[in-house]
User: What shape does this take?
Amino acid sequence: MIDTKTSPLNRAAEAVARSTPSRLVKRVTGLSDRMVAWLFIGPTMVLLLAINIFPLFWAIGLSFTNYRANRPNEPVESVGLRNYERILTDPDIWIAMQTTANFVFWTILLQTVIGFGLAYLIDRKFRGHAFWTTIILVPMMLSPAVVGNFWRFLYEPQIGLFAYAVSFVSGIPPTEIEMLSNVSLAPWSIIIVDTWMWSPYVMLICLAGLRSIPDYIYEAAEVDRASPIRQFLSITLPMALPFIMLAILFRGIENFKMFDMVNLLTGGGPGSTTEVASITLKREAFEKWRTGYSSAFAIILFVAVFGLANIYVKALNRVKQR
Amino acid sequence: MKAWPKILRRGPMEWTAIALIGLGFLMLFQPFVLELYSYSFITMLIGTVMFIVVSKFPE
Amino acid sequence: MSLTTAHSVVVPSTTSKRIAAVLIVAYALISIVPLLWIFATSFKTPPDSIAYPPKILFQPSTEGYCNLFTTRTRQTAEYIASLPPATSFCDEVTRKRNMVIAGPSNFLPRFVNSLIIAFGSTFCAVFLGTLAAYGFSRFKVPLADDLLFFILSTRMMPPIAVAIPIYLMYRELGLSDSALGMILLYTAVNVSLAVWLLKGFIDEIPREYEEAAMIDGYTRLQAFWKVVLPQATTGIAATAIFCLIFAWNEYAFAALLTSGTAQTAPPFIPTIIGEGGQDWPAVAAGTTIFLVPILVFTILLRKQLLRGITFGAVRK
Assistant: This one.
């Protein structure tokens, strides 16, 4: 057989190919569009399959067993649906869900009201509004863990700035404002920090919603002599609503899995007053090492988030069309 | 598509699925009845699966 | 429509503008106080930091930064007096508290870990994301919507739930507490954001540019490299910064999956302790150093923020 690579004819052909314009090279190196598409999307899919999907199926498998990660040599037994049964009938986990719901409800309510309010005010377009908007946006870009950790210092009963400011305004002695160790105040300590961080997020999305309302609608309303309150209720609010929903859904998903701040501010305490679902899951999985049981819990949270994410993407596409 | 029955159109089915997911969430979060909490997961699961299947239906 | 109407909603009245300005400025100032307090605390001495009432005016000191970068041991006054004169400012400050510097603290290695993991994962996520986004933007990919949703949904998963199987998988593969493992994990989380954001940016580049180039004899790959990429530079840069911020700020995975060699700064900073509890000036100093890059990036990104937080769906 003739070695085609070293044959003089082939070498000459290569020299010609190198000097030919790119038009001809296309035939040699050009991949079909279909190939290019899979070449481009493939690596991302492989990575996500390896880091997200494979572990997910592993977790589903584990959720039907009594596996414990700290005792890898113990025999693993299949327990069927018992893990799910236990989680879904356990009053303690039910209470953790209610704690989570409490956080989700209050943080979303406060953030929506404050965020929309701020957006409405910024939309007045006073001089310097761009600068102040940037200042307001800063907290949301910071690490919830690192900043949340520092809030522990601000919340210190006597020496903390927060306690001092509150006692300055209300007259309550600053030693009595124990945000983190008082059972009824501890949830609020987290709600306050979360609201401080994420109201700007809602504001930014609402602002986009307000700016998407065309001026001529207001002009028409003005011609009809609609009162400002009427205009707000029948134009501003309904037209900004898809954007508000988008912000609420996203904050809902994020706060449903809230972990960083709670773990650092209260760690679930005092007692279990701030023990949200993520904290319970962390305790079961990484402190008690009940891996099978906690996998089942993780799958339950997965499905909840996945359901919400479906609705979120639907809302995203709806807003995108605007 | 003519053969597709009206009731199985995407719009209403999708809203049913969203309602199921929402209902599942309320059941998961409500503080009143333990039984409702117990069945919240299966409700959400059905809603989610339905949403994914229904999104393949024609408009 | 008359231009002189003072009550037009389209052009807000001067009074309403003034009220809005006052409220917004007040909110901005209040919301920035905790950050200013972090900065101020980092320059306080430990006694100043826990003074009552909280000190607004104080003698600035870099003791917090000294304590952040060093570990110290308590010594007797005689021992300290017998030492040669202090060579640096930090030596001097430490000796005043009857202590000597024993060595460097773990902060610098943790900070370097944060840098390596954040930049490494950002590079990988943007590289993969750009390719995939171009694929989704320009080609008819079967089930594209489902694949895109699948990509996005991976980002929404609760980190603790993801961490359980990842922990087991990394233990099997020997990736526990390794920078490589964290880079892989953060890449997987960030690639979803990168694909969604970059798809939006690439959708905005007219197809005609590449088509013209391909008629001129470029292959698809050449057109991508020489025509699309230069046009997408702004979008790629913005996406990279968003990925960088996520990886930089991430806490849950880092806290659960790293403990020593690969630990990043966020789980480390809360563990900085001095004598008798948390050393707040040192924590504040660490927090300040940690936050400054993000502040710079936020200001650079302010026009793209909205896109970033809505996965590219809302553009101004």
